[in-house]
Amino acid sequence: MLSKGCRQCHKGAKMVLFITGMCEKDCWYCPISYERKNKDRIFANDRLVEKPEDVLEEARNMNGLGTGITGGEALLETERVIFYAGMLKAEFGDEHHIHLYTGMAPSKERLTRLKGLVDEIRFHPPQELWDNILGTDYIRAINDAKELGMEATIEVPSLPGLEKLIPVLPLIDYLNINELEWSETNAAAMRERELSLEDDYHNAVPGAKEWAGELLAADDKVHWCSSTFKDSVQLRERLKRIAENTARPFEEITEDGTVVYGVLIPSGPVPEDLEEELCEIFDDRIELAWWLLTEYPDDFPGDKKIIERYPNNGMIVEVTPV
Fold first, then answer.
1. In this predicted model, what pLDDT tens digit does every residue of 4-18 receive, in sequence order?
2. This prediction's pTM
3. Closest Cα to residue 130, out of 156, 102, 100, 101?
4. Contact 286, 295 (CB under 8 A)
5. Are 104 and 73 in contact (CB under 8 A)?
């Protein structure tokens, strides 16, 4: 049983709005990168936000159906959350689903300010509170959120002791378990706990799903989100949506959602009748359909290469000389 937010995420239709990297907690397993951790920056997906329009443009580029607001601790910047959630709802309508992650147990006053803007709140009670979860302030916050018409979810990483959360299941709508992952910022803490990487290709920690076994079996509202899914399904589907909306006519969209095109730094004349939809001319280069360079190399003298990158001028994945 998946929440609306998770169903949209499966389609790659959920924009990730990173409100701030600041956080009052210091969870050893936090995977946030050095680029973001403890830095007051805003990102829409992987795009650094410099002005509010950047957020709307990113949502349009991916034909987003919803937004997941996260951090750091997003509610340290409650006014910012209200502003961006309100802007997204005004632009895309109430059906634009917004969920918010928080490590806080917000007051009812703060939650009331989010009413009509945030559709689902995903609470992250720290591991040290799981022993007495029903005695924590998170229960009050969960009840307040539901009373205000929001769905209430608990979302935690896969850690030992997850079965201690079973008593809270009747009080919440969903419970998501994220597979524990290595990152550059938590690697030292992982080694201190004698945890290892599953293999050379994934960031997952071996045995992490076993810790979740009892909780997963307790109720169908409990959902397992694997590291592989986030890396190879969620990201790919989101990239495909962006590529479909932003790719130039001569760029080829791959099954992974990347785009492929050719780059020519000319050393001589190029065909004058080159069709506009097959190229874009810059001062120092020509970007064009990659197959022109491989099928008609003599017609395009100069330095030739094929580029594969994330869509909308994103990260370069591979450069192949021709």
1. 999 999 899 999 999
2. 0.88
3. 156
4. no
5. yes
